[in-house]
Amino acid sequence: MSSTTWSVDDHLEDILAAIRPLDPIELQLPDAQGCVLVEDVTVPVALPPFDNSSMDGYAVRVADVAGATEEFPSVLTVIGDVAAGSGGLPTVGPGQAARIMTGAPLPPGAQAVVPVEWTDGGTGGGAAHTMRPAGEDPEGASGEVRVHRPVEERAHVRARGSDVQAGDLALAAGTVLGPPQIGLLAAIGRGTVRVRPRPRVVVLSTGSELVQPGEELTEGTIYDSNSFALAAAARDAGAISYRVGAVTDDAETLRATIEDQLIRADLLVTTGGVSVGAYDVVKEALSSVGDEDEPGSGIDFRKLAMQPGKPQGFGSIGPEHTPLLALPGNPVSSYVSFELFVRPAIRALMGLPDVHRPTARAVLKADKAIGSPAGKRQFLRGRYDAEAGSVTPVGGSGSHLIAALAHADCLIVVPESDTSVEPGTEVGVVLLG
């Protein structure tokens, strides 16, 4: 147990120095969502892979429709249909046209596409509004189409490779794969990619007084909210999270539970049992887990110069030296601690370049000055108004006010040196969500 008090920054630096990004693995596209790409991906085939039509209409030679007007249309012979996905294309010769659908390949001989609205649609009547289904010729229609307007070469044609060319860099290493990136990988034919996987985070709450939501509360018990909040926060940070229901205040049980969980954990998070009371079960269970031959292993319990969240533990456990963060049990303390320490650790495991939440400066809107303990960095819940550039505190400073947390979208940061912040002062805020 360290007797010295740690600063928020030193504690975070200590955690991040110990975290190694997870080894890359090859994943199927659906499983790679949210992961960080570890290789440059180049384009194997041009997109689109062939010249294709951007309209429903007729593929024509430019010379055949050069002088076309409503009054004197060009009359062309329709030689066939080209649908999207067509193979075996008809060749368009002089005086001919092929009906073509959007996305269909431009047939040989054709130089441009005339939209169907510029033709009679092959009905012999006025301007058409839509293409008729293939093979459905109305009464009295001939195999001819009247074209009412000329087109320039390549009109309404999407050129091969106009989206990406073969050999282009599609995505650079370090890219986080969101829906559009997954779509691009699929479009260029990549079924799998090499990424850093999403970390598996096991969240464990401790306390004999904790009851699972949906069960009956008896005297002296409360619902276990921390494990739910932190498992959700871990998922939100990009992890795969496993929630272990509350473990009773018994060191042996807790140690056994943690050892059972190591098999599926890249990071362990406990909440509760770390302060200086008689029942600090996490401290009792973990104070002796260090490996004798392994310097720096085991869990170090420390006091931080912050409010809420003074008691914190950090270290590694088990044969794989799995990192473990022990957070305080107060709901708000545990959540604030998660945001400050666990979320950056998860993002570091993922190999993300930026592990921190965005921050801003905002003007404090409050009825009276906010007090803050000397020498401690205080984090208050707040609501941030980006347009006004202001922030309003939500609820009081108590570390148990979980209702206020649910209505906050930022943390207001009061530095160690300030004991009071007047309304109208500019403060730092950490933006959540």
TrEMBL record:
Reactions it catalyzes: adenylyl-molybdopterin + molybdate = Mo-molybdopterin + AMP + H(+)
NCBIfam families: Glp_gephyrin (NF045515), molyb_syn (TIGR00177)
Classification of source organism: Bacteria, Bacillati, Actinomycetota, Actinomycetes, Kitasatosporales
UniProt cross-references to PANTHER family, sorted A to Z: GEPHYRIN (PTHR10192:SF5), MOLYBDOPTERIN BIOSYNTHESIS PROTEIN (PTHR10192)
Gene that this polypeptide is encoded by: glp
InterPro entries: MoaB/Mog-like_dom_sf, MoaB/Mog_dom, MoeA-like, MoeA_C_domain_IV, MoeA_C_domain_IV_sf, MoeA_linker/N, MoeA_linker/N_sf
Function, as annotated: Catalyzes the insertion of molybdate into adenylated molybdopterin with the concomitant release of AMP.
Keywords, comma-separated and alphabetical: Magnesium, Metal-binding, Molybdenum, Molybdenum cofactor biosynthesis, Transferase
Ranges for region Disordered: 123-143
Protein name in UniProt: Molybdopterin molybdenumtransferase
EC number: 2.10.1.1
Family designation: Belongs to the MoeA family.
Cofactor(s), by name: Mg(2+)
UniProt xrefs under Gene3D superfamilies: MoaB/Mog-like domain, MoeA, C-terminal, domain IV, Molybdopterin biosynthesis moea protein, domain 2, Molybdopterin biosynthesis moea protein, domain 3
